[in-house]
Design goal:
CATH topology of the largest domain: Rossmann fold
GO biological process, one term: phosphorelay signal transduction system
Keywords: ATP-binding, DNA-binding, Nucleotide-binding, Phosphoprotein, Transcription, Transcription regulation, Two-component regulatory system
GO molecular function: ATP binding; sequence-specific DNA binding
Number of strands: 16
Number of helices: 19
Radius of gyration: 30 Å
Bound molecules: adenosine-5'-triphosphate
Structural class: alpha/beta
InterPro entries: AAA+_ATPase (IPR003593), AAA_lid_NorR (IPR058031), CheY-like_superfamily (IPR011006), Homeodomain-like_sf (IPR009057), HTH_Fis (IPR002197), P-loop_NTPase (IPR027417), Sig_transdc_resp-reg_receiver (IPR001789), Sigma_54_int (IPR002078)
Helix content: 40-55%
Mean pLDDT: 88
Strand content: 5-15%
CATH architecture of the largest domain: 3-Layer(aba) Sandwich
Oligomer: single chain
Largest sheet: 5 strands, parallel
Shape: extended
CATH class of the largest domain: Alpha Beta
Distance between the termini: 51 Å
Strand order of the largest sheet: 2-1-3-4-5
Protein name: Two-component system, NtrC family, response regulator AtoC
Number of domains: 4
């Protein structure tokens, strides 16, 4: 993108020759002769750079500097000053001007200063953009959900972020475990330090320990230099152990030691290394079952389970689906420069889909629909075929017992919604005791 420069200079000869020189460098230039025109231009457009004379009739260069900094603080301002007004230039620098150039100036010197100022402006803008992206990706409000289940999660997140405890996040694939882990980290006192993610399921058993704990030079064939592990990299920050249920037993023992003593040994070293890390782990496995099966260490399970956070599957928080559709539609419309919306029938259809892939699946469906949209409104026919097909397909594969259980569960959800979560009234309508309802809520793992 071409840089745009506002040039404010009342001396015609300087204005015209400098504007020509800047244009021949490939910049877009708006030359103006007085301060009032400059102020009007600043309020109407964003410039990459402002170059202004200090002494101008009516409105001074200092006033232009002040307005420019207020309107857009990332736009650098270069002041041009005659020999007699150096004091003003110094004052302008103090106020935040990028630099000043004394008139008469050498053109090359001016172009070099312009280049430096624009480099700074590019970096500043990029920095602002990245920061925005980071906070919009990880900031609390961007975990979307307004149903009871998610409200309870937000309240817990708030508390967890203020502690330094180990957290275990449980939930099916795509329910937002990684998003939640990042949010806890960024909201915590370690937020400005690194968060290192390890996908325990993706690392082959023979590499996992060297990845986690690093190795010394010569620890094994091919270890030509010392390499820090992920725990070293996460020092003073957070380590996110994703899919922890897939860790081999031997590595589990070492993780337990880090959790208890904050120490570990690098491969090929007998010396202990101490780290200061917060551990957040996640899994979509039933860890309790893995413990019973002897696949997961019981002591590690209890050590991790200090604060468990269970993310409910999307099908159990139907009420969040329209909100998520809205947010994802906005996101992809922004990205693709489109203006697509979902019809009420499509939203209804999505609300009735069981989303085995949870929020990730919904996100992918929205992206796909917007990318392939031939019209502005997405109707049920435009949704992926499996959405209408899966229910029938799923039903045919289920046993009678499964179908009954599913119907029972959905009915309980509906009635609880109807009674605004009042369990006594729901039990009355359902014709069961409060105790039975409680057992069924637990049995179906309803996050209400
Ligand atoms: N409540 C939510 N609001 C907004 N976006 C969400 C929400 N939950 C999940 N997402 C988005 O859905 C996608 C999947 O989430 P994430 O990767 O955190 O899930 P996960 O549970 O860690 O999945 P897996 O177990 O497969 O690693 C991400 O793009 C995430 O930003």
């Amino acid at each position: 993108m071409k840089h745009s420069i506002l040039l404010v200079e009342d001396e015609k000869i300087v204005r015209v020759s400098l504007a020509d020189a800047l244009k021949s460098e490939g910049y877009t230039v708006l030359p103006v002769a007085d301060g009032n025109q400059a102020l009007a231009a600043i309020s109407e457009a964003d410039f990459s750079l402002v170059i202004t004379d200090i002494r101008l009739p009516e409105v001074s260069g200092v006033e232009i500097l002040r307005t420019s900094l207020t309107e857009n603080s990332s736009t650098p301002v270069i002041m041009m000053t005659a020999f007699g007004s150096i004091k003003d230039a110094v004052e302008a620098m103090r106020m935040g001007a990028f630099d000043y150039i004394t008139k008469p100036f050498d053109l090359d010197e001016m172009l070099l200063t312009v280049k430096r100022a624009l480099e700074l402006q590019t970096i500043t803008c990029e920095n602002i953009r990245l920061k925005k992206e980071l906070t919009s990706y990880y900031g609390g409000p961007n975990i979307i959900g307004e149903g009871k289940a998610m409200q309870a999660i937000f309240a817990l997140l708030d508390k967890i972020s203020r502690t330094d405890s180990t957290v275990l996040i449980l939930g099916e694939s795509g329910t937002g475990k990684e998003l939640v882990a990042s949010t806890i980290h960024y909201q915590s006192s370690r937020g400005k330090r690194p968060i290192i993610r390890v996908n325990c399921a993706a690392l082959p058993d023979e590499l996992i320990e060297s990845e986690l704990f690093g190795y010394e030079k010569g620890a094994f064939t091919g270890a030509v230099a010392k390499k820090p592990g992920r725990f070293d990299l996460a020092d003073t920050g957070t380590i996110f152990l994703d899919e922890i249920g897939d860790l081999p037993l031997l590595t589990q023992t070492k993780i337990l030691r880090v959790l208890e003593e904050r120490t570990f040994e690098r491969l090929g070293s007998t010396e202990s290394t101490t780290v200061n890390v917060r551990v957040i782990a996640a899994t979509n496995k039933d860890l309790e079952k893995s413990v019973h099966e002897g696949k997961f260490r019981e002591d590690l399970y209890y050590r991790l389970n200090v604060i468990p956070l269970v993310l409910p599957p999307l099908r159990c928080r139907q009420e969040d689906i329209p909100l998520l559709i809205d947010a994802f539609t906005r996101k992809f419309n922004d990205q693709m420069g489109t203006d697509v919306t979902f019809s009420a029938e499509s939203v209804h259809m999505l609300m009735n889909y069981h989303f085995p892939g949870n929020v990730r699946e919904l996100l992918n469906i929205i992206e796909r629909c917007i990318a392939l949209a031939s019209e502005r409104v997405i109707r049920p026919d435009d949704l992926p075929l499996h959405l209408s097909g899966t229910r029938a397909q799923k039903t045919s594969l289920l046993t009678l017992q499964d179908i009954t259980a599913e119907a029972e569960k959905n009915h309980i959800i509906q009635i609880l919604k109807l009674t605004g979560g009042n369990r006594s009234r729901a039990a009355e309508i359902l014709g069961i005791s409060r105790k039975t309802l409680w057992e069924k809520i637990n049995g179906h793992q309803l996050a209400l």
